[in-house]
Amino acid sequence: METLATGYGLIEGPVWDASRGLIYSDVTNGGAFCLAPDGTISQVIEHRRGMGGMALHENGGIVVSGRSIALKPANGSPTVVILGDDPEAGRIGFNDITTDAKGRIYAGALSFRPVNAEEEPKPADLYCIDLDGSARVVGQDVMLTNGLGVSSDGGKLYHSESRRDRVRVYDVKPNGDLGPHSTFAPIVDGIPDGLAVAVDGSVWVAIAYGSRVDVFEPDGSLRRSIPCDLPMVTSVCFGGDDLMDIYIVTGSGDSGREDAGTVFRMRADVAGVPVAPAAVALPKGP
Fold this sequence. Notes:
By secondary structure, the chain is mainly beta. It is built from no helices and 24 strands.
């Protein structure tokens, strides 16, 4: 396993851009960065904190989470809010996001701030943002939403539910709606965080405070665990020209440092499922 970049607070939201490299955020310090194949690092989004999830958009911008689901345009134009918060409905922000093959966005809402230990945990909903830009609830009673990923055939959605120590799975309907969830895999000795899906149906789950990535078979049984030098493993992402590089990112928790957020890379024995760019329509200006 190679160390490619370090010195961040809490890395999240890794997404592979075939034309640029790995894009990732620093939740606590703010900003998003691009790690190019030649190892150079550039900042692609400034200032914004709390970006737990990111997705490319077909127009060249980047969709990010935080207080809202929003588009950061490639040309530096003002941020476009796609789905805002609604505190009265218990929606104060969003964490991980992903897309399906058609470009719909799945976004997990937050009803409490996970970094505030004094706040009482409350469940929240899972949203689907459709191609016309409309949003609807497709999953409920999620106790701290995290990683999301769609199977290669589009028929399954995997979803880390961190405060219940499990990965959920849903059947996906042709219109993007979801069937009832079931437990795909319980997680022990750590917290399920970001995840990625491989073309053989395996599900790769970052285990925060578990110093590892767990790889599950399509039936939910554990195939292998990949150890990591840092305890707070926050997310994973397939990348490289053949999508057989696995990028593993971390935060600083339990490391004894505040700048231990690191990007690691290793070769996988299977390729990842390509994650399509978002294709949702954007709200029109006044």
